[in-house]
Each structure stands twice: as C-alpha cells, then as structure tokens.
TrEMBL record:
It comes from Bradyrhizobium barranii subsp. barranii. This is DUF417 family protein. One of its GO terms (cellular component) is plasma membrane. Keywords: Membrane, Transmembrane, Transmembrane helix. The chain crosses the membrane at residues 20-40, 47-64, 70-89, 96-116, 128-150. Pfam families: DUF417. The keyword Signal does not apply. The lineage of its organism: Bacteria, Pseudomonadati, Pseudomonadota, Alphaproteobacteria, Hyphomicrobiales. It comes from the Bacteria.
Length: 175
C-alpha cells in the first residue's frame, strides 16, 4: 500500500492544480444547468416550498412573485457560473464567482432546518428523508466546494496584489 501511495503522490495530476480546476469546472456546469431550469414554469412552481421556507430568500415571493423569483435566481446562477468561468483568466472575477457561489449555497443550506415534511412519515420518519429534503442536502457538498474555491481564489488573487496594496510594510521602509 505504501508503494501505491508513493507512486500516486508522484503523479503530475496530484502535484498540480487538477483538483482546483476540476472543482471549478464542476461548479460551472452545476450553475449553468440549474440556471437554465429557472426559466421554465414547472421549475418556478417547484421552487415554492424551498423559497417559502428559506430564511434568507423568503422575501423573493412578496417582492418578485413566483416567476420573478425564479428569474432572479436563474439570473444570479447564470452570473455566478459566468464569473466562475471567467475566473480561469481573471483571478479577481474568480473571487467574485466563488463569493457568489458561497452566498448561493449558504442561502439554500439554511433552508434545511426549516423545510417542512423533511422526514418521510410513511417510512416511519427520521432517518427516512423525503426527496425534496435530500435534494437540498447536496448543497452542503456544493457549499464546501464553494468555500474551497473561495480560499484558493483569494490566495491566487492575493499573490497579484503588491505588498503596498496588501498593507504589508517592508522592513526597509520602516527605518
């Protein structure tokens, strides 16, 4: 086993940024696929129990209505997907995209404790969960991926900032 671990750890795939780029591509695909769904009437209505019980997004219906809320979310998801895509070329846009991604999944993960009928009563309740509740659970992983991207994007963008802009004063300047 040690030999296998040593050999695998020497691969360029492991030593490079493959994990970072693969995570970015996966998040771009997720944002584009989910943003497209928001433009269909069936999806706008399917979101009602989620948005209605979201402590951070419940205000969307009174402010925008069912279709407007779906359009708003779809537009935001499309924007964040584009920012993540452009992040391959611009570290600052990468930070904006990963911040938007974090905000998206914080908003959806906060629905989890408030979601009605989360436990399947016909199956005896907890731990048997309903499908809509399980749909939300994937967002826990997507939030973790977003936090990972944000950390990496901030470190990459900070490398582009000069010491003076970063608030770092060199020893020579202090003397």
């Amino acid at each position: 086993m040690d030999h296998l671990i040593k050999k695998l750890s020497e691969l360029d795939l492991v030593r490079g940024d493959f994990d970072y780029h693969a995570t970015r591509v996966a998040m771009i695909v997720v944002f584009f696929v989910f943003s497209c769904q928001k433009w269909f009437d069936y999806e706008a209505h399917a979101l009602i129990p989620f948005i209605s019980n979201g402590p951070l997004i419940f205000w969307l219906y009174p402010a925008l209505g069912v279709r407007g809320a779906a359009y708003f979310l779809g537009s935001a998801e499309l924007l964040f997907g584009l920012l993540l895509l452009l992040g391959f070329w611009s570290r600052r846009l990468a930070v904006l995209g990963s911040l938007g991604s974090c905000a998206t999944y914080v908003a959806t993960v906060t629905i989890i404790p408030f979601f009605p009928d989360a436990w399947a009563a016909p199956a005896g309740g907890f731990p048997a969960a309903t499908l809509p509740f399980l749909f939300l659970m994937k967002d826990v992983v997507l939030l973790a991926a977003s936090v990972y991207l944000l950390k990496r994007d901030l470190l990459r963008a900070a490398a582009d900032v000069s010491p003076a802009q970063n608030g770092i004063v060199r020893q020579e300047a202090m003397q």
